[in-house]
Amino acid sequence: MKKATTFLLFACALFTALPVTVRAEEDLGSIKTRMSLRLAKIDELKSKGVLGENNVGLLEVRNAAVPGVNATEVSAVVGDENKDRQVVYAALAKKANVSYEQMSKARAKAIAANSVPGVWLQKETGEWYKK
Amino acid sequence: MPRPSLLLLPLLLGGCIQINIPNEFKGELTVNLRVAKELDGFFGDLDQKSKTINLPPEAPAPTAKP
Hints:
heterodimer, A: 131 residues, alpha+beta, B: mainly alpha
């Protein structure tokens, strides 16, 4: 009887945890697809100096008053991208067993190190510069 | 002209040298590697496609010897 109860509890726990894990992976997959679709626009805005990468791995508007750039569209792109990035950093931090801040700052450092010249970046001190 | 035995001396002494890396440093190194691995796993292909991120070239894969 005790064995059967233990088995039943184990089976319940397994079938409850499994869909959650699968869902989390699916979510990251769909976020990645969305980020991939947004990439060309973000690259364009970063190249024009409209957007910059801050020191916590998020996008920030540097100068929306560039001819031919729609401020509303820029704001929407930044909002959507940052929301997705925050979910990704939280998920990756959980997987690596580190804090959200560690993960987002590590990403910011990697972006800064590998960005091409001309991209706006933020130093750890908060100061902005063009690479 | 130094004697051959003298030339071997650094090699022999090298075996006696023990470098201790503090545990907290080892831990930090492991954490940084875990973080880098997770970031690379997710953002690796996105960064490859990006025109504003230039990833350092990967080390060439070792070629198999016959």
